[in-house]
């Protein structure tokens, strides 16, 4: 059974958002020279990440749809 484009978009967003949160925390850890800990950013930063990731997910899903995914 083939996945719908909505499913592809949601999975893409989930994977990209997870990656973005890991990169965010790695950056915080490196900048503060503290041991890595996973924390959810403040609302403003989380919304910013979500918008960027959402845009990238939409572009990725559109490309997959256009090439016949």
What would you say this structure looks like, in words?
This protein is mostly helical and 69 residues long. The chain has a domain at 22-69. Helix content is 75%, strand content 0%. It has 2 helices and no strands. It has helices at residues 5-32, 43-66. Helix 1 (5-32) crosses helix 2. 4% of the residues are buried. The mean pLDDT is 92.
Helix content: over 70%
Classify the secondary structure makeup into a structural class. mainly alpha
Percent of residues in beta strands: under 5%
Label the overall shape.
Answer: elongated
Number of strands: 0
- Number of helices in the DSSP assignment: 2
The whole-angstrom Rg is 15 Å
Low-confidence stretches: none
| Topology pattern, helix = H, strand = E | HH
Mind describing the biggest β-sheet? none
């Amino acid at each position: 059974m083939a996945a719908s484009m909505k499913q592809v978009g949601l999975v893409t967003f989930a994977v990209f958002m997870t990656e973005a949160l890991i990169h965010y925390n790695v950056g915080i850890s490196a900048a503060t020279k503290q041991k890595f800990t996973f924390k959810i950013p403040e609302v403003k930063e989380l919304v910013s990440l979500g918008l960027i990731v959402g845009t990238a997910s939409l572009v990725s899903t559109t490309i997959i749809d256009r090439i016949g995914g």
